[in-house]
Description:
Blueprint (H helix, E strand, L loop, with lengths): L1 H16 L6 E9 L2 E3 L2 E4 L2 E10 L2 E10 L8 E10 L2 E10 L16 E10 L4 E10 L13 E11 L2 E10 L12 E14 L5 E11 L4 E11 L2
Antiparallel strand pairs: 1-4, 1-14, 2-3, 4-5, 5-6, 6-7, 7-8, 8-9, 9-10, 10-11, 11-12, 12-13, 13-14
Amino acid sequence: MKRLFFSAMVLICAAMVSAQDKVEADLSADIVNQYIWRGQDLGHVSIQPSLGLGYKGLSLSAWGSVGLSDPADPKELDLTASYTVGGFSIGVTDYWTDESDGRYFFYDADRTGHVFEAFAGYDFGVASVNWYTNFAGSDGVGKSGNRAYSSYLEVAAPFQLGGLDWTGTLGIVPYATTTYATDGFAVVAACLRASKEVSITEHFKLPLFAEIATNPCDQKAYFVFGLTLKAF
């Protein structure tokens, strides 16, 4: 699986290099008061850089997270290869944290810090629907004790109100898995996010965002605030 993932990234990079003048690049970093992901509390104040390349629907991106206020927070590095055509998108993500073994190039099935996830989705404009499934690496287990192939369904709807850009998100885990600490079908994320670019100078805008993130399954709620530093 890991060979297939890295081969896909190499092919995407080769396609981009062959058409450098048409490649789009993105460089940014979020600073957040807490790291909440799919209804799970994964850390305190964090900086989360991202770097991406895109070419004719193909994209390759890297995303990371490092705790600023608590040295015990895990370090994370995620690599994603994807393809988008029209509203349809498909791809694979390699998630890695230093919690399990600490070595990045270590893929032992029982001790690796990597989780490989495949995803597919469609953006209808008024809403988007995406399905994610772990297929290799350090996945959780189900009630039987076997690999759960942990899955996550997300529905998101953007809208504008009061001069802000809003997004409502609902995240569902369809069956039992220790990855999301669920015993069966569960709503693990119900979130409302608002964002706006604040003009600092004539040539510099600072994107700000705030999110009320809840996990109905374990009855948790969080208020997340962050800002984005971006190379425009």
